[in-house]
């Protein structure tokens, strides 16, 4: 997984000039983004442009007094009136009791693909919208201290393909054919094959015995190969 960098702030609903939304672009997360002190609405939103369109596998958010948070994703190529898709449905960052007492303000929440809406998983996005609110404490300043995005974990590489001119063994019998000098069928082997075919009720062709029959024949071949 690799970091997904944020290029710039597209828009915001409110900000304190001392704590602007651009603080979310800082990698150290020292200064938060807070709403304007004169703005008495108890909801803030900010829209961020990512450096490139990428799948999102992990989101880490640093809270700064918000009670609720919702995360949405979209694309810069979409029309302005096209709604974004919900990545993380509204989650609780502070309880009503903590909000009223103005305590436990600076927790960190970490989200992974299992927390995301199914429609957004595995697709590439270059816009992220964060909407946070604090309806329980009308006097508390609130916002976010940081956001970190990362791509999903890399898939394990496919097993190496066999070299050209070889056949990948799909059962023990083909593997033996490739690696061992199989002797010509003896009279005893033919009798064993016919006997197994009769036991299976002639439901299978002698050329395509069942797995159990193949194992018996394999044991017979191994015995024939021993000095």
Automatic annotation (TrEMBL):
<dbReference type="GO" id="GO:0003684">
    <property type="term" value="F:damaged DNA binding"/>
</dbReference>
<dbReference type="Pfam" id="PF01834">
    <property type="entry name" value="XRCC1_N"/>
</dbReference>
<dbReference type="GO" id="GO:0005634">
    <property type="term" value="C:nucleus"/>
</dbReference>
<feature type="domain" description="DNA-repair protein Xrcc1 N-terminal">
    <location>
        <begin position="1"/>
        <end position="149"/>
    </location>
</feature>
<dbReference type="GO" id="GO:0000012">
    <property type="term" value="P:single strand break repair"/>
</dbReference>
<dbReference type="GO" id="GO:0006284">
    <property type="term" value="P:base-excision repair"/>
</dbReference>
<protein>
    <submittedName>
        <fullName>XRCC1 protein</fullName>
    </submittedName>
</protein>
<dbReference type="InterPro" id="IPR008979">
    <property type="entry name" value="Galactose-bd-like_sf"/>
</dbReference>
<dbReference type="InterPro" id="IPR002706">
    <property type="entry name" value="Xrcc1_N"/>
</dbReference>
């Amino acid at each position: 997984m690799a970091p997904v960098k944020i290029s710039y702030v597209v828009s915001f609903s409110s900000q304190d000039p001392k704590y602007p939304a651009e603080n979310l672009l800082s990698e150290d997360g020292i200064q938060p983004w807070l709403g304007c002190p004169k703005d008495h609405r108890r909801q803030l939103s900010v829209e961020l442009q990512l450096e490139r369109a990428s799948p999102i596998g992990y989101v880490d958010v640093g809270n700064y007094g918000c009670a609720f948070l919702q995360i949405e994703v979209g694309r810069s190529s979409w029309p302005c009136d096209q709604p974004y898709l919900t990545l993380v449905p509204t989650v609780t960052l502070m309880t009503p009791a903590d909000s009223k007492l103005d305590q436990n303000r600076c927790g960190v929440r970490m989200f992974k693909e299992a927390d995301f809406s199914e429609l957004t998983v595995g697709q590439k996005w270059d816009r992220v919208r964060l909407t946070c609110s604090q309806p329980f404490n009308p006097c508390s300043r609130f916002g976010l201290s940081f956001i970190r995005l990362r791509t999903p974990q890399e898939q394990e590489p496919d097993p190496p393909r066999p070299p050209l001119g070889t056949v990948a063994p799909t059962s023990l019998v083909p593997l033996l054919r490739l690696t061992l000098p199989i002797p010509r069928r003896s009279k005893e082997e033919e009798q064993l094959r016919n006997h197994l075919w009769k036991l299976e009720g002639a439901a299978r062709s002698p050329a395509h015995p069942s797995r159990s029959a193949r194992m018996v024949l394999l044991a017979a071949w191994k015995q024939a190969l021993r000095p």
